[in-house]
Amino acid sequence: MKMMTAGRGHLLSASALALAIICAQPAFAADDALPSESAPDAASADQKTAEGSDILVTGTKANEIAPVTASLQTTQPQAIVSRSFIEESLPATVDFNQIALITPSVSNYGGNNGIGLSESKAQIRGFQDGEYNITYDGVPFGDTNDPTHHSTTFFPSNTIETLVVDRGPGNASQLGQATFGGTFNLFSRATRDDFGGQLVASYGSFNTYLARGLLETGAIKGLGGTEAVFSGQYVHSDGRSSDSKYQNYNLFGKVMVPISPDVRLTFLATYNKNRFNQADSDGSTLAQQALFGKYYALNDDPKSSQYYGYNYTNKTTDFEIIKLEANLSPNAVLENRAYTYYYDNETLSANDVTTLPGTLYTTKSATGATIKGDIPGYTKTNKYRVFGDIVKARIDFGFGALTAGAWLEFSNTYRQQRDVDLTSGGFNYAEKVVVAPSTGLNPGQVTPQYIKFDQNSQGNHTEEFIELELRPFAGLKITPGFKHVDFNRKVDATYNQTTRYAQRLSNTYTANLPFLTVNYQPFSNLSVYGQYAKGFLIPSLSQLYVANPSFSNAVPQRSTNYQAGAVYHGSHLSLDADVYVINFTNKFYSYTDTSPDKLGTIFTNIGGALYKGVEAQATYAFGNGFAVFANGSRNYAKTNAYTDPVSGLVILRTIIAKAPLSTAAAGVLYKHGPIRFSLTDKWTGAQYADLTNQTRISPYNSANLGVSYDIGRMRVGLDVTDLFNSEKINQISGTPIVATTSQIYYQPGRAITGQLTYNF
Question: pLDDT tens for residues 262-275?
């Protein structure tokens, strides 16, 4: 409880400081620019806002139609995906991973129940979810045990205006727990000066239907020019996989209040609720698929562990931001974001959904008797509330600018898992008898045999950063920076995960991270850039799920990033390319001690990994609304050789699991008058499902067709995802493959969606 109070105190103190500074300043002219959501773009006079976000791009023919482009001001490889591409080339159910998929070096798997109808996971250059950041309006978010993400919760596509993929750690002011792997920057729907709105209805494959509304109030003169945008959405689908229904409800609102010509306050809130039928470890085996088909998941038989009534999840989330932006003087600006978000996952799942017809299930009664025919399962809760505050100040002094700030965050998490008898609805007393050690918190306490764990945890995270942008002559920006990180985690468990007895444990990690970026524009439409940066990732919370934490010596993973590239914006051609090298050390590793001391699970570090590659993207606009685009990457991601601490054997270099060797995308687009047309294709190169490189996943691709026609205010559209019906394997769980236990996942195949949009 003290930690909760301290976290809120930091939050309030930072906000109060920001308000005090503003109140002490006089008002300035209205034409003084307020700070932007992200770095500004090229200094060219011909600039346009990227689909309503605060990200500016050069307003050439190529950039106006390009599905993906980059800023001339960028200091790292970047891909900006516009709102028009989201609306015109993808189905409305799409999640943010699928939006980002069109960009270089991004791959993903999952989504096997249909686009946006089940969770997907994205990779950047082979870095997995949890090794890169996702932000929303500049606020990093993620799970509290690891900085991982859930693609169907928090932010469906109706809440996203623009998505920017930064393939690198950025400057010191770019925030997140895993900046070394890059960042998906999601930007919220923009408020606008004019009144308007949109009603959307769609229906398509798998009995999927969506209803969505959006309202823009425009500038309200009676409220001093206040602007607001509101959106609501409902999605229902039977799903691509058998008996895997999915429902989504989302509400979104954003209000921008101009307090004065130099100060504005923005309130944002979104609420999301999902319910879906899916096993906790979903997927089907080759043996099941031989009987029921490759998209078998659940069934309607209460005597089977795959019964849909035994496998479902309810997820509820909310996300709120209060953002203050102010001109403190003609050359000084301030931003402050206070935020909170909440996640609640309530799951019921069978223990094992890989069983075949005729399997005899058993559970245990409180007396230890075997109950034949009853199906074992469990309940799971994972919920957390996060509070945070980000404050940044920037002073421009002519030949340079100084930016400084801090990020303060506190989280409180509750997790539990209990064994249940799915047939009777009671508990399943299936766990081993555990007695708390005499040296522990509750000596001699016997853990109930239906409890796997019951655990509270907290996190306190602070980062302070400073960067100095130097402009020795026109066109050149050199920006050194520094960031200090402190991260404390604490577990206070009645029954800790894995050990199953009461424990109170904590650990603290710190890091000092230097940065250096350079951007040089020799011409108004050409820039070159370079970047050096250090990265840092703390171990998972699972390092505290051990009986003997003193024997675990894992330290944070570290990375050193080097990148260089160029961006060109011609009148018809938009082009950028880059090379990168990332050296990764202190890779996390865990093993079970087999010595006579029986020390249990031990966490440590071994070896590391090397990531390197080349990337490029281009769009050429021919005129009259017609354009072609292409991008691609050649990626190398391999472990370093290391000595296994258990066997003593030297383990040679292997390719990182789920890290494609290359990616490519290409397409044609046409926008003229009432017609919108796009045909895009993303190709994902070969990869391995396991770190031993024994199980290979062949390349696969997915082509998407989007076509629409405007009839007055009405737009009639058709989206076809996976146009050529590729149904190849894109994920394998359990290697080497065993026909009765390994779960095999496939692309969801062709899906056709018709859509009506009314704009007012």
Answer: 999 999 999 999 99
